[in-house]
Amino acid sequence: VPSLSDPSVPPSGVSCSGCGAELQCGHDGAPGFVPAERYRSLASEGPAGLRGAVCQRCWALAHHGSALRLRLPPEQHRRVVSAALRRPPRHGRGPLLLYVLDVMELPDPVLPQLPALLGPDVPAAGVLVVGNKVDLLPADCRGHLGRLRRRLAAACARAGLRGPALVDIRLVSAKTGYGVEGLVSRLQRSWKCAGDVYLLGATNSGKSTLFNTLLLSDYCKSRAPDIIDRATVSPWPGTTLNLLKFPIINPTCDRIFRRQERLKEEATKTEDQLSSKEKKYLNQLKKQGYLVGEVGRTFQQQKSSAEIDFDPDTLSYSMDEDPIDAPKKLEEREEFTHNEVKDARWCFDTPGIVKEDCVLNLLTEKEVKLVLPSHAIVPRTFILKPGMVLFLAALGRIDYLEGEKPAWFSVLASNLLPVHVTTLSNADTLYEKHAGQEFLKVPMGGEERMKEFPPLVPQDITLKGIGTTEAVADIKLSSAGWVAVTAHEEEELLLRAYTPKGTALVVREPPLLPYISTIRGSRIPGTPAYRTKKPPSFVENLRTMGSR
User: Fold this and answer.
1) Coil, strand or helix at 421
2) 498 and 399 fall within a common domain
3) Are 277 and 366 contained in the same domain?
4) Residues 485-499: b if buried by 16+ CB within 10 A, e if exposed
5) Which residues form the G domain (predicted)?
6) Within a domain: residue 3?
7) Nearest to 95 by CA among 222, 211, 200
8) Residues 282-317: pLDDT tens digits?
9) What's the whole-model pTM score?
């Protein structure tokens, strides 16, 4: 079998259009690897051949959702980002940092690292904090987004981000588009085209998804989406290996006026006035999130396809097939002219900062896909008496040890993760029998997998209830999800919570969604469970007919 790599061939000097790593065929474990035969075939077409190609890892992510084992240590991530931020300002003004965090991960473990990452020698003009994935959270009461924003502001203040350095805090969904038009307007209004913009964030915060959404918005030069490929979007940690960028459009008065006119016109439409294709796309987004918003283009007709994806014929191969010879579609790739980019300000995507103590670091790609919520989370509430135990897959466990009365436990996690309730006397047996099996689902792989998986370790927690409709705290089981605990006023509870050894268990007080236990149906007779209830989705930028 011919070797896939060929160390004698020098690296290309061309970046992978999915992750930004330099394309090479010399080392199959390193970033940017393309099998040698495929590499030579593309290189033989001249400079245009490799431009626009993706490395084997990005291709595997885009087509199979699987990442080849490749991890960049945290120091290397920090080095790449730090070096980029310390470049001398090209336009006499330091960069704006767009820090993206997953609101479900509050208190965000990376936020306190930001001041150190910036350091005194970074000429940053400010940080704009973007709370992402708000579409996945059910509204537990009116005004829940305002409360989330205040929670985010408090987290920024604790991390030392305040005053002029903190430009703004925005809540968005990079995936469904909610809040993105508002973010673009805010960037154009306050930052205009003053300096470069860097997207920063932890792995799995949705940073690359936001980069891709901004690339297809009014924030990007109108010709750029045709020339720049989108970053590979994947739940696997650390997929953006180098700096990808797109040129920011200069928001002239005329452009801002035309953009406002488009947004005003769109806001007068009702859902009934959308085309069948737009309705279909909207319904798809509604299934995925509670909050939905359309991201449009003012200065260019959108392509007919809502999703621009890698073309498997021109860009790659499967892991076990010979490379396919590409049809000659890549010969005439568009390029920017010198005038288009000579004074351009750029928006850079950066590698994800790896979260330490995170359960996702212990999981396989397949397991990560089950654990990371991809659709609107439906809360699951159970009423437990002392002596009962709740399992979230085999990744978390909560024992209700002592208390006078029953209490409510509301699980907020991926809808694909099973929740099981048992008694304290049966709990250890259940875990030993079912961990690694279909019943508890994650981890998967039976006894062999569990031999290498860290054991669950306990932490005792004492809580005092504040009332039957308001949770007192969230027990956050690393990044697997959390359980909101609601108990009678003044009722003292002793709980014991478990997560895999080496992962962070956090008691979040106050809870993220304090009234979540009220979002439930009737009690299922003979069980501790309540029927689930899914709140309706809300679409911004559209006029609603008589309802919210």
Assistant:
1) strand
2) yes
3) no
4) bbbbeebebebbbbb
5) 197-247
6) yes
7) 200
8) 888 888 889 988 788 887 644 443 333 333 332 233
9) 0.79
